[in-house]
Amino acid sequence: MRSACLITTVLVLLAGVTTAQVEEHKKGTVIYLAPTLFDEFQTESMAAMQSMLGSIGYKVRTLDAQNRADMQLNQLENALLMSPVALIVAAVDFDSVVPGIEKARSAGIPVVIYDRQITSTVSDLSSVAGTIEIGRLAGAAAVELLQGRHGKPTRGSVLQILGDPGDSYTLEIQKGFDEVLELHPQVEVTTKAAMQWEATHAGDIAEDHLLVKPETDLIFPHAGHLAIPIVATLEAKGKRPGDVLMLTSGGSPVGLEMIRQGWMQVDVEQPLYAQVYGIAMCLDRLIAGDSLKVGTYDVTGLAAVLSNESWGPNLKIPGRAVAKANVNDKAFWGNLTPPKGPVKIIK
Amino acid sequence: MTLSVRQQLVVWGLDHLVWFILAGTLIVFSLTIDQFFQIGIFVNILRQATFVGIISVGLSLAIITGHMDLSVESVMALSAMASAYLVATNGAGLGLDLPTWMTLLVSLGIGAVIGLINGFLIVNLKISAFIVTLAAYIGVRGLGLILTGGRSMFGLPDDFRWAANAELASVPVLVLVLVATYLLFHLVLKYSRFGRYIYLIGGNPTAPFRAGIPVNRVLLSVFVIAGILAAFAGWLLAARTNGATPNLGVGMLFEAFAAVVIGGVRLAGGAGRLSGVFAGVLLMGSIDTAINVMGLPPHNTQVIRAGMVLMAVLLDSATSASRRRLMG
């Protein structure tokens, strides 16, 4: 009798918890296809998705593609069988994921592109800063830093360290960066790749490069975590902050901390919170099948422009350069202060 | 069978072929790559080879016993993350005021425990070493991710970083540590009873058991040693990079495997010398450094490395065949 009572109590409690969860996530499940979780931007993106989309009634499931395009395509196909109300994709490879996106959309599941822009197929929304644009901003920052050191015309020696050359993200940043630097023929850019985004490789590349090109003015690793061993190498060589200029992209906590310490001059931020918030603002409308009104929206204090492009509605949120003067601005995701208050859903 | 002096010289040359390949490669690089030939480059090759070099020792021991340890890369990463997590002042680090020796102890402890678990599962439960250590390779990397929440850490105390930055008589301490590790385990393999048992077990595990050799104990010790060496490499890696990131050391297992194979350790077990592995590690490091110094597009790196590994292995098999013919 006592056992029966105990079992009944447990079942009632379980039912209560389950009902509460269903009530909390009554709008259904959104599946977020993350490219990797070995990266602060990605783990914080996952947390922000869960918190912001959770606050408006969605349950978020994250699938980690471990930087493998084939795995992401498999995950996307599996996700279609889980009856999600929407898919959010941050692609490992911008081309190979396209068949999966098309399959999902033809099954009536809205697909949102997050952070890593895909223009070769139509999606229901892209919430991006633009990877090529981030590269261009980094290029502009590099030019400014070199001019600060040598005056005009812009000249100097730059070491660019990509992430894994199989990752479209880093290649697009390179494209934007090179585009700007090519306008300054007296700047010599050497490009190397840290395979698998592994930080030790970046440190080794910098160490070898500085040996044969000690006159290097600026190093541009494509992510903050790649800068950690580079700074260690510079320190070991007796360099002081600012002796070799540094620039990175992403806006990670590590990058911001290095700006505070003086090792890093600029970090071009991808506005993580704003990009997720932008999705949260639009998701109800997308799932309802409504069209979004083009125009400028206030997304966590940033002026985001929603336009209709050949690849679908595109919410462009500008990336920003983080430097010593503004590094403590709480709006930068690297300061890990997500926006508070309810999400303002587009009516 | 008695060999003539000339034949003995040829056999010696074949046994140390990887060193000749290394010397040839360095000469070619020095002649063809601008600014390659300088002391600084050679020091960089040695310093940067430390981590793959140390995990290659543990991997070699496991392979000589006829098994393998795929977990060494992940153990190295977890050890780096755990030690950085404790004392790093930025990122996900706790910034605890711990003495450096304690972080080393924690790291080595992690390596020993994982090695012990691997060894127990392989020796006592008779599960394939490939499966056990593959599971550890995946799972231990995941543990690091859980520990740090996917965040990076940096800003280690100066005394922690001493080993990575200091020099003794103009030689980096990391290089001395690497050489000392190889020397120690070379002596162990060559002159100790334990070393002889390792070769005997790898050659034929049944015969040593019948001869009263404690096969299980030796195997367990080999996996514990491989874990401790990997953890030590991780601790040094944290010191060098002044912190740790969740994907630290990704890909080093394959570099270590390549170095071990190039170095002439027989994958079937029972044969191989650490001196060859050391040359293999340096050869891999030389290729990486040459690629860094050359103005090659980054996309070509892996193809070049793969080509060099293949070439070295083909040469090795050709020389093994010649050696067998010579020895009758």
How would you describe the overall organization of this protein?
- By secondary structure, chain A is an alpha/beta fold.
- Chain A has helices spanning 2-24, 40-55, 69-80, 98-106, 131-150, 168-181, 199-212, 224-236, 253-261, 272-288; strands spanning 29-34, 59-64, 86-89, 111-114, 125-128, 156-162, 187-193, 218-221, 245-250, 266-269, 295-299, 302-309, 312-316, 320-322.
- Chain A is built from 10 helices and 14 strands.
- In chain A, the strands form 2 sheets. An 8-stranded mixed sheet of chain A has the order 2-1-3-4-5-13-12-11, with helices on both faces. Chain A has a 6-stranded mixed sheet with strand order 7-6-8-9-10-14, with helices on both faces.
- In chain A, helix 8 (224-236) links the parallel strand 8 (218-221) and strand 9 (245-250).
- In chain A, helix 2 crosses helix 10 (272-288) and helix 5 crosses helix 6.
- The longest helix of chain A has 23 residues, at 2-24.
- The mean pLDDT of chain A is 90.
- Chain B is globular and about 65 Å long.
- Chain B has 328 residues and is mostly helical.
- The model of chain B has no long low-confidence stretch (mean pLDDT 90).
- At the A-B interface, helix 2, strand 7, helix 7, helix 8 and helix 9 of A face helix 3, strand 1, helix 8, helix 12 and helix 14 of B.
Short key terms for the protein model shown above:
heterodimer, A: 347 residues, alpha/beta, 8-stranded mixed β-sheet, 6-stranded mixed β-sheet, 10 helices, B: 328 residues, mainly alpha, 3-stranded antiparallel β-sheet, two-stranded antiparallel ribbon
Structural class of chain A: alpha/beta
Average the pLDDT over all residues of chain B and give the rounded result. Answer: 90
Number of strands of chain B: 5
Percent strand of chain A equals 15-25%
Characterize the main sheet of chain A: 8 strands, mixed
